[in-house]
Design goal:
The chain has about 90 residues and is an alpha+beta fold. A 5-stranded mixed β-sheet has the order 1-2-3-4-5. Helix content is about 25%, strand content about 40%. The longest helix is centred in the middle third of the chain and has 15 residues, at about 50-65. InterPro entries: Acyl_CoA_acyltransferase, Gcn5-rel_NAT, GNAT_dom, GNAT_YJDJ. This is N-acetyltransferase.
């Protein structure tokens, strides 16, 4: 599996054998990244793929000195699981 950033559409994709199996959607405004959606195809759930997508977005936010609003419930869960990532919370 590979994570791919599609900057022009504000998405992170999880791709397995050239097939998209997961997606995270975000928007950035005034140096604040809002994670609005994270989803993985049902067959691949339970493999921490959505978690990896959220963590990739958090790394991106940190690298750009952005704050993060976890509007998606799963993104909120990732921040609960990884307290060390909370420094970027808006």
């Amino acid at each position: 599996m590979e994570l791919t950033h599609v900057a022009d559409s504000g998405r992170w994709l999880a791709v397995n054998d050239e097939i998209q199996i997961g997606e995270l959607i975000y928007q950035v405004e005034d140096n604040v990244m809002t994670i609005s959606h994270a989803e993985v195809e049902p067959f691949y759930r339970g493999n921490k793929i959505a978690e990896e997508l959220v963590l990739a977005a958090i790394r991106q936010a940190r690298e750009n000195a952005w704050k993060v609003v976890p509007a998606c419930s799963f993104a909120k869960t990732v921040f609960e699981r990884y307290p060390g990532e909370r420094d970027v919370l808006a």
